[in-house]
Amino acid sequence: MTRIGILTSGGDCPGLNAVIRGAVLKGSAVYGQDFVGFLGGWRGLVNGDIIPLDRSRVRGLSNQGGTILGTSRVGPYQEPDGGAKNIQKTLDALGVDGVIAIGGEGTASASKRLFEDGIKIAGVPKTIDNDLDATDYTFGFDTAVEIATEAIDRLRTTGNSHDRCMVLEVMGRHAGWIALHSGIAGGAHAILIPEQPESIDQICAWAVSVRDRGRSPMVVVAEGFTLPDMSEAHSTKGLDGFDRPRLGGIGERLAPMIESRTGIETRSTVLGHIQRGGVPTAFDRVLATRLGMAVVDLVADGGWGKMVALHGTDIARVGFDEALANHKTVPKERYQEMRVIFG
Amino acid sequence: MTRIGILTSGGDCPGLNAVIRGAVLKGSAVYGQDFVGFLGGWRGLVNGDIIPLDRSRVRGLSNQGGTILGTSRVGPYQEPDGGAKNIQKTLDALGVDGVIAIGGEGTASASKRLFEDGIKIAGVPKTIDNDLDATDYTFGFDTAVEIATEAIDRLRTTGNSHDRCMVLEVMGRHAGWIALHSGIAGGAHAILIPEQPESIDQICAWAVSVRDRGRSPMVVVAEGFTLPDMSEAHSTKGLDGFDRPRLGGIGERLAPMIESRTGIETRSTVLGHIQRGGVPTAFDRVLATRLGMAVVDLVADGGWGKMVALHGTDIARVGFDEALANHKTVPKERYQEMRVIFG
Amino acid sequence: MTRIGILTSGGDCPGLNAVIRGAVLKGSAVYGQDFVGFLGGWRGLVNGDIIPLDRSRVRGLSNQGGTILGTSRVGPYQEPDGGAKNIQKTLDALGVDGVIAIGGEGTASASKRLFEDGIKIAGVPKTIDNDLDATDYTFGFDTAVEIATEAIDRLRTTGNSHDRCMVLEVMGRHAGWIALHSGIAGGAHAILIPEQPESIDQICAWAVSVRDRGRSPMVVVAEGFTLPDMSEAHSTKGLDGFDRPRLGGIGERLAPMIESRTGIETRSTVLGHIQRGGVPTAFDRVLATRLGMAVVDLVADGGWGKMVALHGTDIARVGFDEALANHKTVPKERYQEMRVIFG
Amino acid sequence: MTRIGILTSGGDCPGLNAVIRGAVLKGSAVYGQDFVGFLGGWRGLVNGDIIPLDRSRVRGLSNQGGTILGTSRVGPYQEPDGGAKNIQKTLDALGVDGVIAIGGEGTASASKRLFEDGIKIAGVPKTIDNDLDATDYTFGFDTAVEIATEAIDRLRTTGNSHDRCMVLEVMGRHAGWIALHSGIAGGAHAILIPEQPESIDQICAWAVSVRDRGRSPMVVVAEGFTLPDMSEAHSTKGLDGFDRPRLGGIGERLAPMIESRTGIETRSTVLGHIQRGGVPTAFDRVLATRLGMAVVDLVADGGWGKMVALHGTDIARVGFDEALANHKTVPKERYQEMRVIFG
């Protein structure tokens, strides 16, 4: 019997538990695989800190946010006593034949190195930001977009009641997918993403155009968006005459800039961690379950060194190399097609 | 200036309004197109019953269920005074250059015939059942799956509290996509779809296996599922000794069969029209908006006789012929991969 | 140390777990009480079938639907080996000093008899129908109303798209509270409840009046509503000339009657068990938690023979007698104030 | 025929539109009253800026957040050309007999003064914070609590996955009702409200106790909570040695204090404006509709100078004086009963 260890790594993401459940249910039923879970991400793998994972342990997990295995942001080579040699020893001691690592770009990168160093490891891609090129969508993204969209729906009624401009800051440090999709879904009048520069003049022009049509501007901004000249946004002179860094994110910086330039009362909201937790959408549960089931097929086929991915409606297999080759950012044309209707 | 008429046809579907909004916003901003809406599906086209559609009319529609244009199930050749000739006269009288028809298989089929009869017409695919082969997903489907999944989440707690088997009947006359996806998302113990026969003995075996593990069976059944021998389900003898047809859908018929054969108390629920209405999910709003924007691109390119579709993450164009060539049912392998973990 | 046994009885209801959690957390922290749970309602009490309930066991229960103790509809005198004598023996053998019974009218009635027969028992009222006179609201009711209201919101968009009359049947066998509140919240054009007769002519008049204003009628009907002359609704002649009972609930019977009399296409939906399960609303979680905490205060004060209840914003104590004195139905004036704006 | 003007004043609040709808539907159907709406709060009243309000105008408003009349925070005596004399002239010119003002404490206070100055005015209480003593609950509060509770549910899964302490800041400048109720509903381990001091040592002790039981601390803090010694929270020394004010709310200040004292990684989230907008809960829709209907009864009875309120399950009438006599804060005993189970 093959014994497989599963770990979850990186930031929390709705659907992690559904992946674990899908893998354990199919692996045990179809391939007779046996499963353990490493606790706390790579730390559990390095230290051999495990729990058994059988059918009863993954019961009811498809709609549970978070991960029953815990997670952390430290990599397998950064952990004390980390590295491939030690990990192989741990695996041998535990009788674990191979590892399934569920995580984002950092996890894929570490998995690639471990695989090259001889560890049998396979991957499931996970990023709430949807910025992995190897897969059409990552689980967790749809939930984050849904939560952000519901927030926009709520903020718009308040914007309209008060004739205010509302600014919502959503996740997306390097890729603006959450902002783009929630902004489209919520009918935002401006969407600002890290990939595409917009000047404060343009943003204000959109807001004014909306106000002039008798409506209340709704601006969605990804946390990684920067203004071309951010000196205004980044710093401010204190009463003592010293420049000091403005605290807070881009949303909190944009709001007073829009207000002072347009005269439209403006309020900002930062969604933050709410986007990462809780019950996954049905879309994410299905995707996560399918990926979990597919990765045990991969492992049963001896496909170590690869990860599973969504291509169209099919689950595909891609090498860690390929998965890491490109960062999936919002293409200019996807942004431009929305941009023409802003304002 | 090009003047385009939009109509929505067939059953209600979350996202119809978002398509209309996307088309009008982009068409007017980018191509200077002018829009009218035909009321009540094909009837409005045949009778020239229109409302103007400008930017202010589609304001705030992205999150509104239903269709502001109304819909019906009668085709353009079935309507009194229907047919291509009369329709062309109506279009001429209204100064409408071409038609965008948003609808399902029947609508695509009628559009194809109208196009062959000389009407400039383009299409946007719509089916809550997701059974159109030309597109990876249709808008409305994700919302239906989300609603069905939330119902499963609720029913499971009651099943567990009462040690009952719960049966949920969802939409899907010819294709089991809603049952499959909601069943996966909700962690059902049996999913029954029109495409794949299962015997009542097998269904009961799954239920007993769940009960024997101390859990409460959750069965999701598409309305179009039939038992190989449905005589038991379809009819029953009355007190007068005459056979009479059992009323109600498959869910209501299955529940007493499971209960009497397994001894597990069983209750059924029929979701019905709730799956078709109300606020669309963010996924459906994005897809619908993109399709609406893409169909005005198509029309601006003179691409009459085609419809827009989702391929992977891209919007593609397909001929009506191609769109109608195949009915997209659940492939056997998609069903089998879940079936092995039922029970 | 006092040892207390908790049981949940009757139909499932969102908030049962929150009551259990509130009782255990406060009872153990403040009074040093020790808790066990009887499994499967009264059956567990009669048979001494228990699980320990400590702080770790009730962890995370506030938002969990259903009851971890299970429930059933059989009373303590109906169970084999039931009755006060046997129950007292069981309690003595388990070292349990007294019982907290969470349930509805039947449970309160049985608790009263057990208390008169010498059992130390206290109660927490539970009915999804909100028909207990002793308390302003029962937990579970708010969740049921919320679910029914969301269904109305969804059905209305479909009614409007198709110019249809939509009929929604909600719970309420003897009291129309769920229909009344969800109907108000959803803006229904007719609300039909068991307490107040309305003729089919009146119902159709409302539907026609709505249609004549260009809208689509929304009818909410409690399952216990009956037409003054139900012969039309209750039976139908078969092809063989014999009268036979119409299957299905009042919603399914009303729809064709409205359709045939008004010519308005009419569809019905039965919400069913979905109203009873799943995540409770915040209101119900707060109410349930407060009741759970209050009942251990009651027990610590030796207040056996009583139950806790909500009066305004305060938790009060009432005798089982008082709790059972009146069935809380919708008062005529509450119904009339809505009735004047129907149609 | 009596002509009544309605205005909404102060911060946005889910249910405002349902009050307007309830008043217009009942007032026109039962009393033959005629309605207009003043736009932008008191400003519309001062300037005579009105829209007609008839049945068709309030159609479908029960589930719409915000207010179709707009709102502002400026009072009738602060507006240019404000004051009772001018307002009476405006009312006379418009043929408006009396005013219904929907608003919070400031609105009630201004209404009282206007009434004493001769204006026929009646009120409907509105505060999302639920801090009006005259009524058991205000509409909007339940929606805010529901939204905050859903946020807690989401944050808890992430807290558990990362072994983090999560801090959620909710609304409540002077009263901690939203924090108390959402904290109870979400199972928070510490709830911090303006009315009750807690030291940072106590807060950290609770967090450590939770961590030591293997769980992740969840802290809910009302925006108006202050630490007894807030110097640490309020200021910080910059790199230049100067003390400078810490920006951000109490949640953002508490998180690093908890983290540095306990060693538990801590993250904060500020819910902000999301609590004020969007679709109201069914509870709020029912309450708002009932208040709207009751205030036209009040007006029909000539009960100017009063407002309507919820007492238990009944709608009552209270004078503006009485309504303003006390600020409803969380009573010590309500807080203490939860406090004993914190940690």
UniProtKB/TrEMBL annotation, chains A, B, C, D:
Its EC number is 2.7.1.11. The record marks 106 as: Important for substrate specificity. Gene3D superfamilies: 3.40.50.450, Phosphofructokinase domain. GO terms for molecular function: 6-phosphofructokinase activity; AMP binding; ATP binding; diphosphate-fructose-6-phosphate 1-phosphotransferase activity; fructose-6-phosphate binding; identical protein binding; metal ion binding; monosaccharide binding. It catalyses: beta-D-fructose 6-phosphate + ATP = beta-D-fructose 1,6-bisphosphate + ADP + H(+). Its cofactor is Mg(2+). The keyword Chloroplast does not apply. It is an enzyme of class 2 (transferase). One of its GO terms (cellular component) is 6-phosphofructokinase complex. One of its GO terms (biological process) is canonical glycolysis. ATP binds at residues 11, 73-74, 104-107. Substrate binds at residues 127-129, 164, 171-173, 223, 267, 273-276. It is found in: Cytoplasm. Homodimer or homotetramer. Catalyzes the phosphorylation of D-fructose 6-phosphate to fructose 1,6-bisphosphate by ATP, the first committing step of glycolysis. This is ATP-dependent 6-phosphofructokinase. The gene is pfkA.
